[in-house]
Please model this.
Amino acid sequence: MTTILGIETSCDETSAAVVVDGTHVRSNIVASQVDLHAKYGGVVPEIASRAHIERLDSVIEEAMAVARVTADGIDAIAVTNRPGLVGALVIGVTAAKTLSWAWGKPLIGVDHIRAHAYSPAIGLATPPWPAIALVVSGGHTSLFLVREPTSIEVLGATIDDAAGEAFDKVATILGLGYPGGPLVEKLARDGDPTAVDFPRTMLDPQSLDFSFSGVKTAVLYHVHGHGRTSGGLEKLSAKQLADIAASFQQSIIDVLLRKTMLAVSGTGVGTVVLGGGVAANKTLRGALERECQSRNLTFHAAPMSYCTDNAAMIAALGYHQFMRGDLAGLDLDAYASAHERHGIAPATPVVHDGTA
Ligand code: KG4
Ligand code: ZN
Model:
């Protein structure tokens, strides 16, 4: 039995978790900062860092207490060290290094997006690999071929706005507030997904990369009039707003489905898994599940509590890195960017410009 303490501070959730053997979650404490950032309409990096500093100690203590484990019972400490807001990541990385040194336990640096790709496997009796993993989060939309937890190949990635970012920006355009994804989903329930024909940007027909900035701009001009960025919202009825939300959501889902199926046919893999904050969207989960059923593919969505940011997925993927001896030293650094395409980590740290 191998017990990992996971720590996650890459964006606006302060989280710690205790996970056994990469699948049994003994505790997963998440302190959300949504209330702190809501009035600014998005995450303010300095506020996020400060809140992580204030909350992380007690979040870790709670995770250990709920799991009924002391330092002696922890085999290693896994921490998100990329990608994310560097000032936020550094808080978690520093805490993890300190505990690693004080307790004499190994340290593991975990890629947040790859942990999202792994998250659908948490709690499954049989590992789902190999699988095509669709990760839809606030900062990234990625397709991976996960051969096994420590062998993950990037097939496609965001070239501009990620899916979650598009949901958040469309929520702002529609005057809904922050964070936008759940609010757009709620409004879309009363709308007709075929009412407005928003663009489905596929890029090259065989491309597995994603671009959602075009659909966001299409929503903006649909609301205000072509080339205009204000003045139109007040003129829309509740029904029209719901139709826009539903049609926008459908256009995102259509692109995600088509590209995921392209990845399936290109690799011949028979299992699809779904993770990341946008994976909490029930319409997306249902649509991908139906598509997989119709093609006789196995499908697993991450459990709802492991879709948005959490440390359970960090501890879970960290377990597999630990078993392979993929350990970090006390010089572990934090990076704004994800691993480079096709699984090659950049040789030098990326400029710490605070963008995720
Ligand atoms: O994975 P996550 O918690 O953070 C990042 O790693 O970025 O994803 C957050 C994103 C936000 O953009 C949020 O609006 C979106 O996930 N999201 C949703 C839903 N719940 C969260 N998007 C659509 N529908 C939802 N129900
Ligand atoms: Zn995330």
